[in-house]
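INPUT
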Amino acid sequence: MSPPTATEDVIVSLKATNLDAITDNGGQILVDLKKGKPKGGRSPLAHLLPPTTLARFEKYGIDVSQGYPEVPPQEKIPTFLDEAFAVRNEGYPYVDRGKNADPEKKALFGAATEVIHLTKHIGTEIVGLQLQALTNQQRDELALLIAERVVVFFRDQDLSPQKQLELGEYYGQVEKHPQAQHLPGHDGITIIWPELFLQLGISSTFKQSKTTARWHTDLTHEHQPAGITHLHNDAIPKVGGDTVWASGYAAFDKLSPALQEFLEGKTAIFKSAHTYFDRNDPLNGKKQVEREHPIIRTHPTTGWKSLFVNRTYTDRIVGLEPGESEVILEYLFGVFEKNLDIQVRFNWKPTKADLGTSALWDNRISQHNAIWDYENSEPRHGTRVTSLGELPFYDSESKSQRQSLGLSLV
Amino acid sequence: MSPPTATEDVIVSLKATNLDAITDNGGQILVDLKKGKPKGGRSPLAHLLPPTTLARFEKYGIDVSQGYPEVPPQEKIPTFLDEAFAVRNEGYPYVDRGKNADPEKKALFGAATEVIHLTKHIGTEIVGLQLQALTNQQRDELALLIAERVVVFFRDQDLSPQKQLELGEYYGQVEKHPQAQHLPGHDGITIIWPELFLQLGISSTFKQSKTTARWHTDLTHEHQPAGITHLHNDAIPKVGGDTVWASGYAAFDKLSPALQEFLEGKTAIFKSAHTYFDRNDPLNGKKQVEREHPIIRTHPTTGWKSLFVNRTYTDRIVGLEPGESEVILEYLFGVFEKNLDIQVRFNWKPTKADLGTSALWDNRISQHNAIWDYENSEPRHGTRVTSLGELPFYDSESKSQRQSLGLSLV
Amino acid sequence: MSPPTATEDVIVSLKATNLDAITDNGGQILVDLKKGKPKGGRSPLAHLLPPTTLARFEKYGIDVSQGYPEVPPQEKIPTFLDEAFAVRNEGYPYVDRGKNADPEKKALFGAATEVIHLTKHIGTEIVGLQLQALTNQQRDELALLIAERVVVFFRDQDLSPQKQLELGEYYGQVEKHPQAQHLPGHDGITIIWPELFLQLGISSTFKQSKTTARWHTDLTHEHQPAGITHLHNDAIPKVGGDTVWASGYAAFDKLSPALQEFLEGKTAIFKSAHTYFDRNDPLNGKKQVEREHPIIRTHPTTGWKSLFVNRTYTDRIVGLEPGESEVILEYLFGVFEKNLDIQVRFNWKPTKADLGTSALWDNRISQHNAIWDYENSEPRHGTRVTSLGELPFYDSESKSQRQSLGLSLV
Amino acid sequence: MSPPTATEDVIVSLKATNLDAITDNGGQILVDLKKGKPKGGRSPLAHLLPPTTLARFEKYGIDVSQGYPEVPPQEKIPTFLDEAFAVRNEGYPYVDRGKNADPEKKALFGAATEVIHLTKHIGTEIVGLQLQALTNQQRDELALLIAERVVVFFRDQDLSPQKQLELGEYYGQVEKHPQAQHLPGHDGITIIWPELFLQLGISSTFKQSKTTARWHTDLTHEHQPAGITHLHNDAIPKVGGDTVWASGYAAFDKLSPALQEFLEGKTAIFKSAHTYFDRNDPLNGKKQVEREHPIIRTHPTTGWKSLFVNRTYTDRIVGLEPGESEVILEYLFGVFEKNLDIQVRFNWKPTKADLGTSALWDNRISQHNAIWDYENSEPRHGTRVTSLGELPFYDSESKSQRQSLGLSLV
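OUTPUT
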């Protein structure tokens, strides 16, 4: 073989690629971009699974004998920015399960042995109910409760992955992340397993966390970002491993009316965690998917306004100079992070060691931060199902949470 | 009476005052500075006390029929800076109760039904023990535990104020705050009662806290600042009212070796919360007491290094230009406030509604922040006893907590 | 003499004071507040005056044989906040001299030998004209030029203080500062003389300036703040002593349209440099006069919008939470301070050593900063006349400078 | 042609490239990386040259008839990080011309008609001398003067590019920048020509500068970074286009002794302006060359300490946590940028319109910022010769400038 003679051919070919390679004009593959991706199939990590997780998988027929977790096949992982952008870029219908639920939630609360509001503005624990046994009426009331309380917890759950997925599907289109390692046979059930990060070479230290121990909201770069995320932890550290959530409703209420008005109607650019090749500029580094969403969004169920920004994925406010955007976003991130009265900190430990704990939170109205103080000294493993929400919108007629609840606005 | 004829006389008299007034050369009281102080005696607020508090007081013979709380008499409240500075300015002996305690704490742990480490670096809850029944051996082990875990919690306590005071006296000289309203007859037992703030006209709002809902360490301006503080809450909101602590040991371990070395041996100026007249400049506004302490201090019991600064009372680093001090202190405050893995958040609710909950924390190695999310919608009341500690020192041979425990230093 | 028996009398008397003292009910002077003030009369510093200044004073009949400068008499210096607030609190007519001037400034420019625009957005030097010989037509054109170019310079001026004052009176009500040391016999001509600061005990160092070497705008706390300030330096360091100005027009044009719109119509609180006793709270420290002005103001002459804030005297934006105000003001201060393309730096040295140099700037549309690099190693002395302007207003129909000049707005 | 069958081959080939391409194992060129580079040769922009520049070129025999400027040939432009790193990575001898010069500079000053120190700490203008006629003795004295005054200016210069280059070679190894467009036939003479940026598609706006209108020091990523840079502007805007320099000596003197001591002996990482492919990771975006230099360096000629960091190219302090490095560097950048008393602002306009102006500054002890207020409305063009300096070092015995000059250190 001889090298291409006409250098212009190469330039052209760099812009005319197929899905997975940089080719020349003749279709010759110059660089096989799939090379950087994991092969699809099963990871050989099943032997590292914690006993409680294995027991749950065995009980509910999740076969890990062929390996664990499952890695998406290469052909489903986007290589180019436009491919990543095309994932779920079309709108899909969103059914608001909580909208018409009983405001008093009698079916849900009546069946519980205890309902504990953990703080005033965010976080409720329900005791004495099994998530997998909820009726649809209870599920609707739970959707409303999550929309009001931002995050709802259930300890001591005997929950099959299949039922977890079913509940997620009831709440909306389940996100199937093209890159995420997931439960074998269930690409809607992703894995939260610090051991996996370690095996992938991503190691945090006491002084610097490399993973989720920073404030963020999940999947905000999507066309219809995450609504309810349900994380069920089936292996939980004996000490530590708390998660903290902060309320976007309450963050909005912390702002002055003048700053609220300034932000209402404005939008921000949200970036993806993953990066992709730019088809027109494949050699200049990978780029993130960017989408534009309102900074103040209205929750469809409660009709309450929420501050929708987060340090990890919100890049800039549209229409401001870079320096202006930077100081205002930094201030807004701080509203979530510094005001302890709009946060809840939850320790996942069940009262019965062989059962798991579930948290269901609404990503439209919250940020969270997973504390990594256990430093991989103890196992932690969870299955996560995310139900995507509506196309974010701002309704200028909507109210703030405190306004709606008749609380003081100063 | 005629006005002074020689204006110089007045100037002189402004510098030659007695304890409580600005006088002229003849001893004539020109301004009675006591006027701004509350009269001593009993406040008429006893009828506002929560039922659980009243029950505790009745059970243990605290008489509030003459009023509650007790206000210090005017003559004990410093008027001038030098008077305030003179309070406990002489060193007093400090007995380190934890120093020789059993490192395994067998007497304490053996008697407990459960010992729960709430996070890795900070916070332990002991279940099944009554603080007022501790033996001295158990008290010593508890002192060691507090020194190691920063803060220790006991729910469901039936604790008399008298026994709380006695425990505090065992741990060191009990702080008697000249301004603080306190339990009638017990000036070593101060009151944490948001209702009292309200009655004094100090009202917080959702957007702006005026009281303790900000990060601080107690009494850092003292010659021998607070060691162990014991807050026993006998009335607790049904929802909210958590307190958050952050560890000064772990904050030190978060710093780079280079910054640790820079701070070791340096000192900072700590300011008092209260203000006083400057005898030499009485008309230019009240001033704060200022004392100088090491920024990195060694805990006498554990021998571990701790970062000793806090946003509320640390004013400046000695030897730096103001702008330098400002950015470095702001960074150090953020180490405590932003690293959720070195914080513990505690909800005070007892499992039995008629009992109280105690927290004992070490102010030498922590900051805390009392969350005011209950917004005075529910009663909260506690009695506090603070045992003062040693004169702060830095021992260049001492180790960090993680170093001592053999944990990774990166 | 015996002390007052009824303490309530004293409390009352602290609120019922005459202009200069805290008295009791019987009119007894308890504290003579005039004591902190300089006595009126002449300072004994004339012998320190630089030779060029002395020569000018001699030529124009300014007699310093009785002392220099003149200190305002005590009875004219406000003691209490309300007295300070009352100074020029009534509106007075403002005549806009530049409004109807020839836009081409033919009379002014035609008489000059050279007109040098020092930078694009700010600063013009006029060569070959004597300020004291200007016709009214030329003065009007100069007013227009200052309004357009923010600051205008004239070197090699042979200018009598009397003529300087007359020009200032032509431009508006001349500010007579109740505290300022001034030219003997002329309380409208204040002194800029670093030697005076030194004699008053205010000493700057290389690392920390105590005086005007920080960004500020003059007299922004007044009801009708400063319009044109005219500083004539008659003694100028051989090296250094530059002054820098930044344009408020250009600062406005640096903002995004969204932030411009946010600020338009909003106001800020401006604080005075001097402090006064609060009549109702005389023992709690002196306080500053505070007045509220638009953040974006329209210049009456040009009709252009200007950003009107400065680090030294602008305290907070009305209607924002404190934290919001702080980050936005800090950003706005930085727009003036960091953008070198909207600044002019001027060295005062005349081409003829025995003549002086004048700068006339418009405080409505600028900040400035007097560089103290000569470190008192050489004399510097100037006479200053400030013509107060209109009540600040914002006209929503007004344009930005670049908009009006047809320059790019991005 | 068929695609490679063994995908592993491609992976291997991505790491085994020749200088300018990504190839497969067989040497097949997969991606021709030269495609992104300008072709060598002459740019067709000569017709845009300003008249004064053309006159100078014609006078001194610079032929632009074949195009202007000259673009380096592709084969000299590094593609890969290791190639860029190899450029001048070997030490070369540095001759310190100023070291033994007459401290009184009698030959230089004696020949000048005037020597103007523009500010106290930085900047001197020499009047009445032609740079191209300097004797070696005068050149040595000039080197010493630059080392002392940081930047020295000469207006009204009739200077041939050849003589400019010769002077640069006298002062050290002349930097030949592999990417820089330069004078035809003289790769040691680079071009400062905003018009060129425009033609390359780099356009600044009033609100955002894309080029050199930010604080920086030249070429700090080199093994032996720039010593004296000599910029001769032969076309100068009628209004604006000033450059500002700040002194690293004085910046060091602004720090507290404690912070000085902290920084002494520490190093920082400096990044290059240009980016290159990582041979081991060619598809993950281009990377910058990084080199490590002392933060406090000693100038070889004066023996004075200088603060050596700049916002544009200093990335991080070695040995600090990222957050620590960020706040301390931001503070240090501000020392240069905010302290107007250690800056000089220079307007380049000659007194004779057909002559040029030269600035010679020392990059070891300064930052600068080229103000773009003329907004391409007028031509600006200059030729630049940079003499590289010694390997940066810190001598713990060296003194600060103010210490050495006997000035106050507070």
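end of record. The first helix of chain B runs from residue 7 to 15.
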